[in-house]
Each structure stands twice: as C-alpha cells, then as structure tokens.
Specification:
It is built from 15 helices and 12 strands. It is an alpha/beta fold.
C-alpha cells in the first residue's frame, strides 16, 4: 500500500502545482493593486468620463501614474529579480563546493577529486538520434553530422516503431540503426533501450549526444562541445542553443523571434543552463549512469532508466535530475543548431501544450527543492505575465469601446515605445524580418496571448488530471522551408 500512497501523493502534487502557481501570481497582482489603491489620490485634473455599451460609466485619466505607484511596481519587480538571481548563484556555488557524495554525486569538487591523475583518453562523441517516421528530415540531419569536424565516433539512429523509410535512409547513409523492441514509452522509452546497451561500453570520456531527428548542427558544434569537455573534467553536459528553420510565413517568424530571444538570454547568463535541450545535448557517461542509479531514490522514475518515461518533456526532466545531483552544465554560444518550427497553429498548440504540461508535471514530481526554485519562479513569472498582458489588452479594449474618439495617454505611449525598442533589440540577430515583426508590436502581443492561453489550458488539464498526449507533428512535404 505504501507505493500506492506515494504515487497518490505525487499525483496530488502534480494536480495542484498549476493552481498554486496561478493562485500565487494572482495574489501578487492583487497585492500590488491594493498597494497602489490604498493611498489617497494626488490632486490634479478631474478624470474624464466615457460610457461603455450605453450603460456603464468609465473614468480615465491621461496623466502619468503617481510616483508612489511607479516606485511600488518597479520596487517589487527589482526585489523579486534580485532575490531569484541571488539565490540561484548561492545554490550554484554550494553545488560546486559540495562534498556530499550521497546527495550530490556529480558535484564538481567530487568529480575533480575522483578523476585527478587519471587520463581517460581523448573525448569522443557517440550520437543517438531517436526517430519515429522521420524520412522527411533524417537525411539532412545525418549530413550535418557527417560534415562535422571532428566527426562523431558513432552515429546511431534509434528507430522507434517506424513504418516509413527512416531505417532505409539511415542505412543508406552508412550509419548504425538500433530498432526498439515492444517500446510503449515513445522517445524516452526508445532512448532507454539504446542507452541500456550503450552505456556499459562507454569509457569516462566516451560522451553521448542525444539529438532530435529534425535538427541540423551548425559547423563547429561538435568541435566546441569536445573542447569544453576536454578542458573541464567536472563538466557533465553541454547543451545546444537552437534557432528556428526558415519558412512557414508569419507563424514561423513568431517562433524564430522567440528562439532568438531565448538564445540572447542564455548568452547573457554566460551559458548557464535553463534546459539541456532535446534538439542536441552532449552528456558524459558518468552523468547518465548516476541518473539511472538514483531513479526511485533521489530522483523520480524507474531504477535503471536514464529517462523518466512518465515525463512529457524528457529533456526538462533530465536537466532537473542532473541539477539535483549537482552536475555542472553549460550551453556555450559556439554550440548552435537549427530546429524545426511548427508549420500550423494546431501543430504549435500541440507542441506548446505538451511543453507547458510537462514543465508543470516535472515540478509536481520534484516538489519544492533548491534545484527547482528557479523553475517555480519562472512559472510564477509566466502566470503573472498572463494576468498583466490580459489586463493591459482589456483596458485598451475598454477605452476604445467607452469613448467616441481616440484618447492619447502620453505616459503609456512612452512606455509602449520603450517596450517596442526592447522587442526590436532582443531579436536584432534574427535579421530584418525579425526586427520588422518586433517593431509592429501588436502581432507579437497576439502571439504572446496565444501562448498564455496554452499555459492556462495546461494548468486546467493538469488540475482535472486529464490524460496528456505526446503528439508527433509531421511536417508537410510540400512546405517551402526557405524565405518567409
């Protein structure tokens, strides 16, 4: 009965995590609202009046908010950001200095001590490519791998229940093929089968790269990862920085802008990892073995499995697992990849719903730990952003409907210009199309609202314990992948 009670507790945590995050964000927004509304209004011109739907009176003021309002808003934001950044740095320092082999077996200080004076040979990389019916892109992926300098030691396509030409194309390219047997656990299950056979044969420096079949490596990826792993014995994983492929019109450009901003954030963090992306990440065998050994103990999952087959977002879950064990990881700027973008809104909805649902479920599985604190704060920020953006757009709609003429708000126009400038600067590397879309502002706000609705749908489904689905999105063969 004990395992069932434990499983029930985990399920309860997973069902409540979304509501806890949204509730906390709403509470924070309400507290700020009350702090602003508590004081007496400053003297000034009387507010103007509009009528909504011929019945409701709406008052508005074109003057800038009072200084106390601005100080309250900015102060709360800065305080929260400083607290999160300070705690993250403290946790990182503690993990690096830890000597507790029972709780943090991958801590850099322990790894350096254990490997001192031992040469495990040059760093080599074996590539595993999980593939389910990927005949439309597998050849391009393999070409980008074979063109790397230095080339990978081995390339293994992990063919999972393929019914198309994936296996044939892989063999024609001259790479190995591992076909899964009776796998019911999608990508994670197929990789577990392949890693079960591979890891016992790997030396300490015989690293393993996991990459998606719809991803192509930029030149220099393997060279950069090899150099990083050679220079730092304590480094357990190297993640890639991804940006979106060309094409697919406006929806493709939305995603490319999003990925460009994500890359910029990582560069500003000097490569400190958010997520070891499933598009392409390199692991030391020591790290993967440690995760498999701790499953069912320090980590959720089945003992002996590298990947938790219950997790919808296996790359995010594996990142949290490695951080829990004290691993040092980095996403360097020289390791970049091109990944697919969703060609349709339905495909994007399915992808992002899985990402969001998986992230929430991972937090429920791990609970509140020092290593998950930033992820909790990240989700809290998303929840607060949902409320803020919805309120912003609602107030604009109320103004338009309640007044017969357009009303100019100089302060908020100034804030909008600053916000627009930030949007343009953060996608500057993406080229003129990215800058033009960011400059238009409102289309990207619409895209942000779309992602917010996905977030709320993920919270709602998780709360109701609805069965999640790992959807496989097939790219249309006729789609043009170049240009916009």
């Amino acid at each position: 009965m004990a395992p069932q009670r434990g499983a029930g507790r985990v399920q309860w945590l997973q069902r409540s995590v979304g509501l806890a995050i949204v509730g906390t964000a709403a509470l924070g927004a309400s507290a700020l609202w009350l702090a602003v509304a508590a004081g007496a209004p400053e003297r000034g011109s009387a507010p103007s009046e509009g009528v909504l739907f011929g019945a409701w009176r709406v008052f508005y003021d074109t003057e800038m908010p009072a200084p106390r309002v601005l100080l309250a808003a900015v102060g709360v934001a800065l305080l929260l950001a400083a607290a999160v950044a300070g705690l993250e740095r403290r946790l990182l320092t503690r993990a690096r200095r830890s000597e507790d082999g029972n709780r943090m077996p991958l801590a850099p200080k322990l790894v350096m001590a254990e490997t001192r004076g031992h040469f495990a040979g040059p760093v080599t990389i074996t590539v595993l490519i999980p593939a389910h019916n990927e005949e439309g892109c597998i050849a391009e992926t393999l070409s980008s791998l074979l063109a790397q300098e230095p080339p990978p030691a081995r390339i293994v396509v992990v063919a999972d229940n393929c019914t198309d030409g994936t296996v044939r194309l892989a063999r024609e390219a001259g790479v190995e093929v591992f076909e899964t047997v009776a796998n019911r656990h999608k990508k994670a299950g197929g990789l577990n089968q392949a890693l079960h056979d591979l890891l016992p044969t790997q030396g300490d420096n015989d690293c393993v790269m996991i990459m998606d079949a719809d991803t192509t490596l930029d030149p220099g990826f393997l060279a950069g990862a090899t150099r990083r792993l050679t220079d730092d014995r304590a480094l357990m994983a190297v993640g890639g920085l991804f940006y979106g492929e060309d094409g697919f019109g406006l929806i493709g450009q939305f995603q490319r802008n999003e990925y460009t901003r994500y890359q910029r954030d990582l560069r500003r963090r000097r490569g400190r990892v958010f997520v070891l992306t499933g598009t392409a990440s390199v692991f030391r065998p020591r790290a993967l073995r440690a995760v498999a050994e701790e499953r069912g103990g320090l980590l959720p999952g089945v003992p002996g499995d590298v990947y938790d087959t219950v997790a919808l977002t296996e790359d995010n879950e594996l990142t949290i697992a490695l951080k829990t064990l004290g691993a040092l990881m980095v996403s360097p700027r020289e390791c970049t990849v091109v990944t697919e973008v969703m060609p349709s809104w339905s495909g994007l909805w399915a992808q992002r719903l899985r990402w969001q649902r998986g992230a929430l479920e991972n937090l429920g599985a791990y609970g509140m730990r020092p290593q998950t604190f930033r992820y909790w704060m990240q989700q809290l920020g998303i929840g607060y952003g949902v409320i803020a953006l919805a309120a912003y757009l609602l107030l604009i709609l109320l103004m338009v409907l309640a007044t017969s003429t357009w009303v100019w708000f100089p302060f908020w126009i100034g804030i909008g210009l600053v916000f627009t400038l930030e949007r343009v600067v953060t996608v500057w590397r993406g080229g003129w199309r990215a800058r033009l879309l960011a400059l238009s502002l409102f289309p990207e706000l619409g895209y942000a609202m779309f992602l917010n609705v996905v977030y709320l749908k993920g919270v709602w489904d998780l709360t109701l314990a609805r069965q999640a689905d790992w959807k496989h999105v097939v790219q249309p063969e006729s789609a043009v992948r170049t240009g916009v």
